[in-house]
């Protein structure tokens, strides 16, 4: 069993992270869903209280950076918008759901299950004690979020039954009508046996099963009703306040730092970046970073993730690992100079 010697400091809104560029607040969005009105509130908060942008996360949430350490006004605005419905459980409302569920494909529409799970978790006082990194997932059968390292996942097998996955490992068959009750019971059991563990995979007998990576691809998609929707993927998962307002509709934030828009609007395609590169915030926003990784990442187009230090914040599973070190980068463990990055990553991308 993993032994932790420091407390879980996963940020939220009430307990922010003290970054080099100011306070960082993470706003949880169950299943990544957010309304047009809530997007407007986030845009105003970013513009008037933060660095002017909203930053998408690898769990389908959003972050605001460059905030004042006094977040009282932020808390008030987000609470009024319905984005903080359960203060005691704020940091544990971590739920992934298949982003296209109910729009295109999938065996079942898991959107009602997300709302049911959120209500059940928030109604159980003990679950406020879950680590902030503990992750639930509801997969509609297409095996997308089932691959996203959830501690507990219900994955549909047909229109009435699914399978329980613990740290990716398949368990019992569970009817859809019992999915939420089983997930809550399993989370309570984790609390009983976890010791100092933050994740299910840290318990004895669990190693974490890696499943095929199946993100929603950027671009138009055909809905089940024959109409079209759109997925946009902004560079580094960063959207300015004005870009956020441009959606003007309810959307879904995906675990791949992209946004699913139910109605296709061609003007929004400009929000997608051509590059497949991703990066942590780097210098000057993070004091632990050894480089301005985003400046270096802009030079390449390979499926790579640039990290300013060994923590590798936000690294996608399938990306080439690029970590800043003294005088250059480690690319999948091998030292590369900054000048040679484009060539080396280009070669890796062509394999």
From TrEMBL:
GO molecular function: 4 iron, 4 sulfur cluster binding; metal ion binding; oxidoreductase activity
Source organism superkingdom: Bacteria
Gene3D superfamilies hit by this protein: Sulfite Reductase Hemoprotein, domain 1 (3.30.413.10), Sulfite Reductase Hemoprotein,Domain 2 (3.90.480.10)
Record keywords, A-Z: 4Fe-4S, Heme, Iron, Iron-sulfur, Metal-binding, Oxidoreductase
Domain Nitrite/Sulfite reductase ferredoxin-like: 24-70
PANTHER family reported in the protein's UniProt record: BLR3264 PROTEIN, FERREDOXIN--NITRITE REDUCTASE, CHLOROPLASTIC
Protein name: Precorrin-3B synthase
Organism: Amycolatopsis bartoniae
